């Protein structure tokens, strides 16, 4: 028997086809409205929370507007947390070396910011990304004439220390893990496993070094020598950056830069950091260097829109797409990084 519609007439095939199409449109409309409501709620909550936690003249105004507000003098805090690598996409909310460099530039350009504080908790990362942040600091210092201070949390090793070497002062917790001054190029070798399972790789290449670092064959002595030259050159760049930043002779730095790690207190004794203290101590030092005194107003370069999309992205993709991509595309990479964590 034919089904009847609301008017009591038998439904045609065309009626049945229209119904699921209309349903899909409604579902899409509801999804869009839901996303917009989430965005609006997040923005309101962010502003309300900031207003509740601080007095009007002490609010972190940059949280309310990407451009911030030009009030009395302040210290800008820029967090550098986790391993330092380039972003996997052009999305503005992705975290990577480019975004950190951008925040450094914007903070130094703000008229109310009199000093910049880098809150570092990082084991380092890829050579290019670390050097990009270092260059951003050096450029910002030259253009703005503003002081930069680094604070070390749990870990600021290898590339984390390289970044800090560009700063005017370094403050570390006594138990901070730092040092690991050096460079590493890790190559996995699955040749033995492939031989056991009967697999063989055939590479058609334009030159004998084109597949250098391949995980499916053993490295030749000539390739090892070439890679060691690469390591030595990037290592020399690290040593030179530390020597310039800490105003130490290159040879003195080399004696400390054999890859070993130090506690914050050991680093202080070796003149690798300037003072032992916590984040508030670092803020006070930055305030004094910026000539606005101790316990200054603090601003953070955080864009609520970026923060919202970052949270939304993590909810939609809870496994973290970038982390998965790193795992799947793991390959040889030149790094200023400590692999203790």
Structural topology:
Blueprint: H1 13-53, E1 74-81, H2 97-109, E2 113-122, E3 124-126, H3 127-144, E4 148-157, H4 159-164, E5 169-172, E6 177-179, E7 184-185, H5 191-197, H6 221-246, H7 250-256, E8 261-263, H8 264-269, E9 275-276, H9 279-289, E10 297-300, H10 304-316, H11 321-328, E11 334-337
Parallel strand pairs: 1-2, 1-10, 2-4, 4-5, 4-6, 5-9
Antiparallel strand pairs: 3-11, 6-8, 7-11
Structural notes for this entry:
The chain has 341 residues and is an alpha/beta fold. It folds into 2 domains: 1-53; 58-337, 2-enoyl-CoA Hydratase, Chain A, domain 1 (Alpha-Beta Complex), CATH 3.90.226. 46% of the residues lie in helices and 16% in strands. Strands 1, 2, 4, 5, 6, 8, 9 and 10 form an 8-stranded mixed β-sheet that branches. Strands 3-11-7 form a 3-stranded antiparallel β-sheet. Helix 4 links the parallel strand 4 (148-157) and strand 5 (169-172). The longest helix is centred in the N-terminal third of the chain and has 41 residues, at 13-53. The chain starts with 12 loop residues before the first helix and ends with a strand. 30% of the residues are buried. Mean pLDDT is 79; it is low at 48-70 and 313-329.
CATH class category label of the largest domain: Alpha Beta
Taken in chain order, the helices and strands follow as HEHEEHEHEEEHHHEHEHEHHE
Considering the protein shown, what is the CATH homologous superfamily of the largest domain? Answer: 2-enoyl-CoA Hydratase, Chain A, domain 1
Uncertain spans = 48-70, 313-329
Structural class: alpha/beta
What share of the residues does DSSP label as strand, in percent?
15-25%
Beta-strand segment tally: 11
The main β sheet shows up as:
8 strands, mixed
Radius of gyration (Å): 27 Å
Assembly type: single chain
Broad shape: globular
- How many domains would you count in the coordinates? 2
CATH topology of the largest domain: 2-enoyl-CoA Hydratase, Chain A, domain 1
Query: What is the mean predicted local confidence, pLDDT?
Result: 79
Task: Specify the CATH architecture of the largest domain.
Answer: Alpha-Beta Complex
Fraction in helix: 40-55%
N- to C-terminal distance: 69 Å
């Amino acid at each position: 028997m034919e089904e009847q519609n609301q008017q009591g007439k038998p439904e045609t095939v065309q009626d049945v086809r229209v119904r699921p199409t209309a349903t899909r449109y409604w579902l899409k409309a509801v999804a869009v409205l839901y996303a917009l409501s989430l965005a609006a709620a997040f923005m309101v909550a962010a502003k309300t929370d900031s207003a509740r936690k601080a007095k009007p003249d002490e609010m972190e105004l940059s949280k309310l507007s990407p451009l911030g507000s030009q009030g009395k003098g302040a210290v800008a805090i820029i967090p550098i947390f986790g391993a330092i690598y380039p972003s996997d996409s052009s999305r503005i909310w992705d975290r990577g070396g480019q975004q950190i460099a951008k925040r450094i530039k914007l903070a130094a350009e703000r008229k109310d910011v009199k000093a910049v504080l880098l809150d570092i908790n990082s084991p380092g990362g890829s050579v290019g990304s670390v050097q990009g942040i270092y260059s951003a600091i050096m450029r910002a210092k030259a253009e703005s004439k503003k002081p930069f201070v680094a604070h070390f949390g749990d870990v600021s090793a290898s590339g984390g220390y390289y970044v800090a070497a560009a700063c005017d002062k370094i403050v570390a917790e006594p138990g901070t893990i730092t040092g690991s001054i050096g460079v590493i190029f890790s190559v996995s070798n699955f040749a033995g496993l492939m031989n056991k399972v009967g697999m063989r790789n055939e590479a058609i290449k334009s030159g004998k070094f084109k597949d250098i670092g391949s995980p499916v064959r053993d490295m030749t002595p000539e390739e090892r020598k070439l890679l060691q030259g690469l390591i030595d050159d990037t290592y020399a760049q690290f040593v030179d950056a530390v020597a310039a930043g800490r105003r130490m002779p290159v040879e003195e730095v080399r004696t400390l830069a054999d890859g070993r790690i130090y506690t914050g207190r050991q680093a202080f004794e070796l003149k690798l950091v300037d003072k032992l203290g916590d984040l508030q101590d670092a803020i006070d030092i930055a305030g004094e260097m910026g000539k606005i005194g101790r316990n200054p107003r603090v601003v953070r370069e955080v864009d609520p829109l970026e923060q919202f999309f970052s949270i939304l992205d993590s909810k939609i993709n809870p496994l973290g797409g970038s982390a998965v991509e790193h795992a799947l595309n793991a390959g040889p990479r030149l790094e200023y990084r400590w692999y203790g964590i």
